[in-house]
Amino acid sequence: MKKFFTTFFIILVCFSCKKNDTVSSDKNGATESSKEFDMYEMSEMALLMEQMYKDNEHLKERIKKGDTIGKFPNHFLKIHAAVMTDEQENDAFFKVQASNFIKAQELIYEDPKNAKEHFNSGIDACVQCHEVKCGGPIPRIKKLYIK
Question: What does the domain layout of the chain look like in residue ranges?
């Protein structure tokens, strides 16, 4: 009887560890083994906007604390040439909004006494553009306003 249970246990272990060779498919007919995952790659513009967001977070804190403003970050000027995810989005409306944003940002550094107003004007330009172009980041952008 002991040999029977030992043999049964060995057979059970061998069959339970057998690899299942069936291939599953999804509703589109793609097999699991043929699926490839593409990593999302941010466009130049998306990367630039992320950097501008971070820079403005730091600038907001300096303005609120009354610290020195520093110098205008020249990489902001890349907004006019950065490659967008959809090149058709780089139209006349975007160009105007980008110019408004840059003007407001430059005024922060030229007129630090009114930095809060200029900063919020720059954020307004971002929100106005994103209301038309890509609404997703608006709640995040609005967090930059200085109250």
Answer: 46-142
